[in-house]
Specification:
This protein is of the alpha+beta class and 223 residues long. It is built from three helices and ten strands. It starts with a helix and ends with a strand.
Length: 223
């Protein structure tokens, strides 16, 4: 009987040691670690890229007569142009653009004056049939469009100041046909043909070499 009691006592001690193995004191058993939920941000919707298409181009010139510099304005009826076809801004429509103008189509609203401009001015130039322009880059910070104008067999850089207004780009530039394009002979010939009409109240006849150039490019935004 005594041996049975001792055997039971030893068995209890053994079982107690197995249950406490790997734990210290009365610490609870570890629970499975919970994972933090993932934090995600939905992608932003892509913005539609804007696209602009040219509608029409208008060209205007203004020359001056008499000492008081009376303006005489006109345009050209026959010209062709090439503009950018993949423009994401209005200014980009004029990237690598070009214009070719037939001088014989000069139009001031006065048939007699137009005939003199054709015969006495443009026909006196070395390259009398065309005036050509091509763009040569932007100074976007100052709204300046750099261009190259070819007239009288001369290629001259000319800068246009460009503004956006009412769905159009409006450009302005000044040229001197004598200093820049060496057209002194043509201008003198024009002056002699129009001497009386270019005489002001002071009795002085004057034909100015500077010409104001303007263009208007109308465009729309594609949706």
């Amino acid at each position: 009987m005594k041996r049975i009691f001792i055997g039971l006592f030893l068995m209890v001690l053994f079982l107690a040691g197995c249950q406490n193995k790997g734990t210290s004191g009365n610490q609870p058993a570890a629970t499975p670690r919970q994972q933090s939920p993932e934090i995600t941000t939905p992608p932003k919707p892509a913005q539609a890229k804007m696209h602009f298409t040219a509608d029409s181009l208008k060209i205007r010139w203004t020359a001056y007569k008499t000492t008081s510099k009376v303006p005489v304005s006109g345009t050209f009826k026959d010209f062709s142009y090439r503009l950018s076809t993949n423009a994401d801004t209005p200014n980009a429509l004029l990237d690598r653009a070009s214009v070719s103008i037939k001088t014989a189509s000069v139009f001031s609203g006065n048939a007699g004056r137009d005939q003199i401009l054709r015969d006495a001015f443009f026909q006196m130039m070395m390259d009398s049939n065309l005036i050509e322009l091509r763009t040569a880059g932007w100074d976007n910070a100052h709204g300046i469009l750099h261009t190259i104008i070819r007239m009288n067999n001369k290629e001259i850089p000319v800068d246009f100041t460009v503004k956006q207004k009412d769905g159009s780009l409006q450009g302005d530039a000044q040229i001197d046909v004598v200093k820049q394009f060496k057209a002194g002979r043509a201008l003198y010939n024009l002056h002699t043909m129009c001497e009386d009409k270019h005489t002001g109240k002071d009795g002085v006849s004057k034909t100015w070499p500077d010409v104001h150039l303007q263009f208007e490019l109308y465009y729309h935004q594609d949706h």
